[in-house]
Fold each of these.
Amino acid sequence: MFNPYRALTPQQARTLGGAGMAAVLLAWALLSGTGLVSPVKLPAPWDVAGALVQLSWDAQRGTSPLLVATLWSCGRVLAAGLLVIGLGVPLGVAMGASPRINAVLSPLIDPFRSAPLVAVLPILVMWLGIGEAMKVAFLFLGAVVYLVPMVRDAVRAVPHTFYTSAVDLGATDLEAVRLAVLPMAMPRIADAVTVGVSVMWTYITVAEYVNAEKGLGQLIQNSRRFSAMDQVFAGIFVIIALALISHTLMVALRRRLYAWETS
Amino acid sequence: MTVSISLVDIVQEYPDPAGGVNRVVDGLNLAIDAPRLMMLLGPSGCGKSTILRMMGGVRPHGVQTPTSGEVQIDGVPCHGPHDDAVMVFQQYANRPDLTVWDNVAFPFRLTLWRDRFTKAEREQRVTEILDAVGLSDQAALHPHQLSGGQNQRVALARALVLRPRILLMDEPFGALDAQTREEMQHLLGALHRDQPCAIVFVTHDVTEALLLGDRVVVLSAGPAKVVDDFALSEARPRSRAWQQSTEVQALEERILGHLHAADGRGQVRVSV
């Protein structure tokens, strides 16, 4: 039972994983189906499934509220994600490659990993208003404080032989970082981006609370206001599913791009 | 191809954990003035790698090398990395993400070398050196698909593709099994014959030193100083009979005597 090195066959892993999910679903169905917990607090699984179907097509307006909300949320995560890659990754690389830059920036960035970023939201609202800029900035901040230290550590984790060997062959220090250290750090930098995107999915509802007009966060928020618990659950499931899909895609992409790393 | 390397009054000190100063090299003088294979032999930890890095101008993390004294290449004091010497490390330093070809061609991606050659020249050099180390058929493979000996061949090819005047080797074959090590020793002899350059080869293997060296310099440990320095004129590859001759056996005994007398702390190896 307790042997961390014993490998499971994929079949075993699937069976056990499926069993765990089935057990939770069963307990959930029992609790809500028998009326032990009131549907106001815990909607039944079939009610949540019904809400999903209901949300996915609004016949009156001829649109899909769920799809529209999903696209808005995805767009915001994508915009913030591009910002994180464009600004956060170079910053982390610079910190990892230069102890001086790190010494300047690390006290400014590292503490924010444990800062209550939700409390920063009102400040962002004051600075950037209640529109898209505020939402994307909030997602960006939430992810970048995790990503930058991870990218820095990825660069530092590269064995120094690659740097030394490149310098010995005649590389300038910048060349050694760019041509020898950075390529070696890329797989772990890709991991950092993956974590960053996961963090953004956890913050998306908070970002969309303010001036909730569109997006999955707004959908959840509005449903809660009308005590439509089944729709709240449906919204949460969609976010989890999206986070899972984006995670799987990014892991697959990383495996493709950096095939040498696992071998 | 002429070359001269002079170590003048080299002193190297490292701060030790107790807060004092640990002097690993104390007033070392050594002159190399021919494109020959020089073996630098000494017990492990005697500072021979430090001396080798000084010649390459590569500094360990945050340490001024040397503390005092001077390394001169052709009479010119050398501070920091220079174009004349290339190092080969025991850990290969091969890039796992690049093919054998790209690993060997890597130096040409650096601005220092890129513009000195045309594309055709660069490709010709890579082709030639891969052929010389016997990796022509493996050019498209990645390092993880190669054996340890083949990986060391890649590292050797990457250094020699620049045709350096000085090749610095830090226990390059130390991690290889006995049979592969022997193959690599023969290969190095052949490469040196075809493309002579001054090779400084650090080892703690007495047999290896006698098998390869045109000149053998024996260092003692703590602090390092030269305790023996002699030439070997026997042509390579050197036969087993020569290795087992009484003179060579006597030399081996003499070196071992030095190493044991100098300090019991270090370790030496005699391979058969």
Amino acid sequence: MPVNKIIFLQKEKINFNNLKVVSFITKKLQKKLILLLIDIPENQKEKVKDQLFSLDIEFEIRNQIEFSEAKDEIKTEKPDLLIVTREKISPFEHIFKITSSERFIKGFENIDIILLQEDCDKLEKILINVDKETSTLYYIKSAYIFAKKLGVDFHMITSFYEVFYENRLRKTHPDEEARQLVAQLFKEHLDIVKEKIAKALEGEKVELIVAKGDPKKEVPYYARKHHYNLLIINEDIEEKESYIENSEMSVGIFKDEEGA
Amino acid sequence: MEHQTILSMIGLGSKENLYWISILLFAGTYAMIILEKFFHRVPAALLGGTFAIFLGVVTPEGAWEAIDHNTMFLLIGMMIIVSVLIESGFFSILSSMALRITKGDPFKIVLTFTLLTAVLSAFLDNVTTVLFMVPILISITSKLKLKPVPYVIATVLASNIGGTATLIGDPPNIIIGSLGGFTFMDFIVNLAPIVVVTHIIGTIIFIGMMKYQGHLEVKLTDEKELKRIIEEQKIEYDVILMRKGLIVFGITVILFFLHHILHLEAGTIALFMASVLMIWAKESPEKIFERVEWTTLMFFLGLFIVIGGLEHSGVFEDAAHLVAGVITDPMSGILILGGLSAFISGIVDNIPFTMAMSYVLIDLAKTAAFDVEPLWWALALGACLGGNLTIIGASANVVAAGLSEREGYPIKFFDFVKQGTPVTVVTVIVALGLLWLKYAIFGI
């Protein structure tokens, strides 16, 4: 993923744990970091500067903008990666509230975005979702390069919605025949996903985890259960919001096509 | 044209014969339901219902009319809404939260889970609540090295108590609401306050018994292990589906409160809102219908026809005269009918009993010299709370016992009786006493 600029947006306060992760990403990708700081106290800004200087990171602070202008600023800047702190709320609270970061990222296109979970201070394990229908070769490759460059543990995952097909096919076919058809569909699903990965990575090997269940529930669940720090999905995936809201962790939404 | 039936063809089609055959059919069906070891209650009820049509005790059109559509629509609608909520993982999240709150303390676990169960049961079918809570409770208590059975029983007791509070909480209430013409608000006003007090007293009793039996002692003292168990409760959920499900559920409950103003039956509201949810949630109907309890619906269908036969033959009219001879005033009626309902519901299925008694009360209202409304509430309290008397007293008990046994913790008949009977006796006395007191103070 040819990242030139990374934008890290912070409003009202700096999340220094997140800054640690952002610094790590910036350093590993060797790019320039633009900090969009909105209503941040001066002393915190100084602390940010000190931290980034000490890490020898090329950065720029922009703090003269209003929150309402932030979206336009980002769109003009066209960064390759936008990182926003994602408020930590329980799934129960989440039913009644859509976080401001989730609302903020709506409307962005052709920008890789990471919703970095509040207070997340490390990126050690990444899970990359590969959707049979919508994940493009470009997406698979860019997510792979991103994880590879960070040098962290990462896996790819795909989920086959077995029950869905079973229920449908059992209505029109005898049980045994339905089972065989589902098995065939599963094989097709895997073949397509493996072929996509092989083509995108041009022979590079990567571990593919195969889950069974409703992908928008199963994939975030797998990521939570196995303590991944970041789940990456593609921008054009169906029911993208569900993947995001069902993940109590950092989520990366990576674009499917190169450039705007 | 005279409707030809098998009975009329063999010369048994007289009104008197039909009268006795309808009683025999009802008794036979009831007997098969009681002997559930030999017959499943659903085919038993369906057999009774279709046999009534077959013999001509009730015409096919009469059978159709005998099915209370409001009850059926309400059950189907609520089952669909609950199915979506289960699919969304809402209940898993609630129980996970409950575990975090209790921090593994046995006393807090029993208090929180019984309260949560009672509240959920007030708005959901008891079987659904138990189906959901029992596996979680078994998993938690066994990990905490506690004996799961007393906790499971406490949860079941709370479920039957909580379900008494509202129109939609327990099948007997759905029947009473529909046949008695009571609104959602009527239940809230007349039963909910009594149920709150009853639940508190019931909780004190079963917690007291559990403490006395040593079931509330902390067995797992390793803090780290405890933290791990609490943190480990990772669950699958779908926040957006949950949001949609809860919005629809919330609107449904609001509409229940307003249904008499809107001149809509609760069943119509429930089915309408369930349809809205299915369209909005975009979940496959097949998946949603998988969780709808078709067996319960079929059971109701069969029973309505059997009971329709009794109604058609004029049996309830006579039964009402008989009851009027025993219950001469509503105040003694509260105690007699409530006590009788509790006892019968404790030993046999409370659904056919409630259905039959409801028709008796409808006919009693036509002839009695007093307002029978207090008797409806006594029937509701007796039928719902009586279910706690034995392990076979309510469907929720049977389901919980099955789940517990499957997990390797069978609930013996007398284990349940030891915990359930004292709670039932006290809660029924308190509930009927409060109902009696209410009418004694405020009048009828």
